[in-house]
């Protein structure tokens, strides 16, 4: 029995040709950040237009206006490109919650909550989608899901900590329960492929439920 631990096993010959599924490096200089951002935007355009089957490293490079070699400096495969894009989307969501729902001092708790729900559950949220859910197994290990869970939960805790006008403080356990309810529901809505109208109705009902629960807490 292999006791090297998760992800430590030797690679069978049949799997040797599998593409690398992680980016090679993160951009640090301004020019590199611009390049990678343009690559992500090209990925999204092709994916929306042609589906995942239409996404190739060559097609993305051409769409972005770069040589294929430039893309390969960061992404050795389209799976690695998707992995980088998912991480980028999580970081964008965290920053958006921080800048627009937590930082503004003039917001009351209801508006902070409304923004949190809208940012997390809107129909255009790139982290959700039926095809994305189907592809997750190709790029994500349990440790990646755990990292995203912990980062997003911490952002929810920071938001509730910023709600000084709440009727009562909300415990860490309750914040996690609310987070699981919303995040889990949104992910399942993606698997069920709810249309935009039903998703919007669901978000409105969730907001009413949470406001009522927090008002009576």
From TrEMBL:
The keyword Protein biosynthesis belongs to this UniProt entry's keyword annotation: no
GO molecular function, a single term: DNA-binding transcription factor activity
Residue range(s) of DNA binding per entry: 56-75
One Pfam family matching this protein: TetR_N
Cited SUPFAM superfamilies: Homeodomain-like
Region span, Disordered: 1-28
Residue ranges of every copy of the HTH tetR-type domain listed in the record: 33-93
InterPro entries the record matches: Homeodomain-like_sf, HTH-type_TetR-like_transc_reg, HTH_TetR
Keywords for the protein's UniProt record, in alphabetical order: DNA-binding
Protein name as it appears in the record: TetR/AcrR family transcriptional regulator
Source species of the chain: Pseudomonas mangrovi
Lineage of the species this protein comes from: Bacteria, Pseudomonadati, Pseudomonadota, Gammaproteobacteria, Pseudomonadales
């Amino acid at each position: 029995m292999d006791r090297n631990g998760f992800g430590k096993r030797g690679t069978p010959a049949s799997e040797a040709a599998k593409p690398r599924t992680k980016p090679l490096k993160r951009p640090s200089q301004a020019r590199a950040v611009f390049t990678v951002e343009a690559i992500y935007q090209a990925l999204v355009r092709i994916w929306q237009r042609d589906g995942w089957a239409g996404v190739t490293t060559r097609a993305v490079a051409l769409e972005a206006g770069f040589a294929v070699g430039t893309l390969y400096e960061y992404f050795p495969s389209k799976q690695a490109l998707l992995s980088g894009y998912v991480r980028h989307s999580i970081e964008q969501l965290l920053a958006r919650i921080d800048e627009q729902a937590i930082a503004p001092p003039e917001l009351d708790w209801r508006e902070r909550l409304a923004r949190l729900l809208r940012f997390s559950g809107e129909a255009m949220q790139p982290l959700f989608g039926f095809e994305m859910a189907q592809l997750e197994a190709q790029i994500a290990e349990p440790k990646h899901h755990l990292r995203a869970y912990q980062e997003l939960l911490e952002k929810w805790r920071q938001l509730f900590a910023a709600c000084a006008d709440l009727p009562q403080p909300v415990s860490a356990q309750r914040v996690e329960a609310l987070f699981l309810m919303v995040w889990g529901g949104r992910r399942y809505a993606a698997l069920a492929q709810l249309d935009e109208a039903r998703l919007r109705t669901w978000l409105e009902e969730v907001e009413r439920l949470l406001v009522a629960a927090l008002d009576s807490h």
